[in-house]
Structure of Kinase-like protein:
Amino acid sequence: MREVGVRMPSPRSHRDNKYIYPLALIDQALPKESRILATALSETQDDKNGPWKVILSNQIRSKLLPKNGDIHEQFLPIDDLVSILSTEPISNLLGEVLNCDSETSRIISSKIMGTETGCESSLKILAILIMIERAEYITRFIEHGIRDDKLPLLLNYQAEIFRNWSPHETDTFCEKQYMVLAPVFDFTRGDHVEWDKKIRMPFLDKLEWKTSGAHGVIAQIKIHSRHQLRGTDSTLGFETNRFALKKFRLSEKDFEQERDALIRFSNANNGHKNLIRLLLSYNRGRKHYLVFPWAQGNLAEFWKTCSSNPKTGYHSRWLIKQCLDISDGLSEVHGNSERLADQTGAGMLGRHGDIKPENILYFGEPDSGQCHLVVADFTLMRFHSTNTVHHTVADQVNFSPTYRPPEVIPASKARVDQSYDVWTLGCVYLEFITWYLIGYAAIREKEFRAPTGELLDSFRTMREKEDGNSRDPDGGFFYYYAWLPRFPKVKKSVRRHSLKPICWSPRRASGTR
């Protein structure tokens, strides 16, 4: 292999030199997109010429994403990096900034491209140097064995690689390097990744944290298609590039607890189609994140935006199937799955702990024939062996007040087991069926109008009216007296509602199968 020796110009000589290449040569070397940009640049110069370092710098800047985002969060997609810095543009750039012959340019170009056997690419380093107007220093990086796999470089003003650079130039390189280091999200493994807080995410839109929960916030993200690995799995979501990103608050314990639960029951290898699937977890600095498929909404939103049609057998079967599938997924969490039968003695008996409509998501358009429900938010999930599954004390359990079971009352020392989830799921089913037969207003609004024209209290209003007898009003499904806290009772409105004949609904299906 021929040794390449190129005299490095001093910073001063670099600034004084001007390399102008004929436009005709630019047209021959660049693809159509680059030729258009080169032509536009040439038209701004009196001599109709444009330096390659300017052309490539402008091409790189034009591809930074997101377009209207924080410049400190912008990244260069992998495919654009490879497209812009192809063999011919690199060779022409080297001839310009190093003032070398074509053979020397070809040899250095092959080193940058990583086409030599066992040679790592230096495309990212070259892109950084182009952006900071130091492309001629690419040979120094190659000679010192610093390739793309060594990035990010730590800030060190005394490093040999930054010899003759000003502190500002070194700072700029170390800052700009993160522009080309946006990671690839591997959704095929469900791994956990640790990233530096300066690493820029391959997101196409500015993050807007809209949905807030007890332990974190959620934003919809769109990930660049070349920065995700999906394999052959088609179940990751219904929109290719859109996902849900959950950022946890300060508690690392909450993050690890939910992640452990998701790995046990919802990953690609042993997951259940009705339990939310964890695609990836990562730390960025000290902040913790989980990535999920993006759902169309939760069950409460589904009730509000979608109209039921109890007159069709298809919708009746759909309702029954969703209830069955959710129960099956929850049964797997509880350790009743045959697949997990050999593990149930090793801490595999779970309790979700927060079943409610807001924690059940729906995927697919409601009328598409593919809409299905998925249990999500595993933050409150707990695991026990068969010997300790009944040992959790009720007053140590977090819960959503409306759907809490009777054993979860203040100062209660009752033991909580998996029947906790059965109660909460039963409450959801009662509302689900009410929505199906009567409509959303009958369960969540203050009142609803019957087909007869009569204005009636909704199911929620009926329960809330009974809270006057309760020590802790919450619109729940039971109440208890302050002087008899150990004897809670199901509310009369709930008993009447659950036992009322279906014919109570004026929308009852008749003559359907």
Remarks:
- The chain has a mean pLDDT of 78.
- The chain is about 35% helix and 15% strand.
